[in-house]
Specification:
Two copies of one chain form a homodimer. By secondary structure, chain A is mostly helical. Chain A has helices at residues 3-19, 26-33, 47-60, 71-88, 104-120, 124-146, 155-161, 176-194.
Amino acid sequence: MGSRFFEIVRAGLTVAGRDGLSAVSMRAVAAEVGFTTMALYRHLPSKEALLDGMVGALLGELDLPDATDPWPGRLRKIALELLALGRRYPTVMPLLLTRPYVAPEAVRVVRVMYGILEDAGVAEAELYRVERLISTHLLGYCVSVANQAFWAADPDTLAVESVPVAAPDPSATGDRWRDELERNLVSLGQLIMAERRS
Amino acid sequence: MGSRFFEIVRAGLTVAGRDGLSAVSMRAVAAEVGFTTMALYRHLPSKEALLDGMVGALLGELDLPDATDPWPGRLRKIALELLALGRRYPTVMPLLLTRPYVAPEAVRVVRVMYGILEDAGVAEAELYRVERLISTHLLGYCVSVANQAFWAADPDTLAVESVPVAAPDPSATGDRWRDELERNLVSLGQLIMAERRS
DNA sequence: ACCTGAACACCGTTCAAGT
DNA sequence: ACCTGAACACCGTTCAAGT
């Protein structure tokens, strides 16, 4: 776990952002850092460990909100940061829902969420549950947007099926999914308020 | 798209449920159905198509609620079905957040969600957004539970970090994460009620 | 015309052979 | 003692060679 480890993990993210997660091979990452393939194995035990490290580095790129800001603004900031992160590394995002949060950078993010809910006045007995409720929505949403899962591959097929996947929203100005995320945050804010200790 | 296609896709799910998604190779699936590897390519164009088909077959296993039931019961039923699905096919679940819902079995599930929200009285202008809000939470939650992302790989590491990932819940009887999902559904029910047309 | 299996360019990881 | 690259057992897909 020398500094070479982080160099390798960052190279993994570089490859993933450029060519997709499926292009993240030990050979490709080694080439990216200028090592021989087998030299990687002296800094990490397996590709599994590389992916776990990438999850940490990914969350490490989040620009976390200032703890002195009001909690709604902090929630909004972290949500928009996650959305932007997904657009930078679309194919890596699903790992955030399948790997346990053990890396320090991951724990850091969960702590910010706890702080938000505490400041909102959520009862401690509900705090961890509500955090998982909010976080799984945010991650699920950002993963879906990043991978364009809300769109049909073939618009004509969808038209035939007549399922209005994306309702027209005349008030939306620039970024359709960012606008929708902000609407969701209003709903989630109400949900959080309903969970305050009485 | 003869019936052989579905046979192959079901074999893919069988392999994935038994040995994990990473074990789903064209060779392994071919062996499962008793075909030669290259014979698969006369029924589907690529492994990509196999995975898309598996998403459809996965959602096809959902036992959908009766449309005549009250909407809260329908929402609960579909949520618990998704949780159970994740436990049967943990490694396949993330595909539900990265592939567009074009297969008929996928469209069917989205239609049920629309029906639930319509019966709840959600304004049409908010219907598609709220459906995505609920669905991304349910999928994110079920993917996390299925892949044990809520637990730390090493409990000792987590203790050192002193992040209470799983708060003790004395009232929870059998299935900890199922109980939590039911609590979340109460919160989401309130969220849905708040989105009703005025 | 149809099917198949060898082959190509990969992959993660092991380990013997080199220095 | 340390590093490396050949090798092993895979992978998705192509395509020429067979019938």
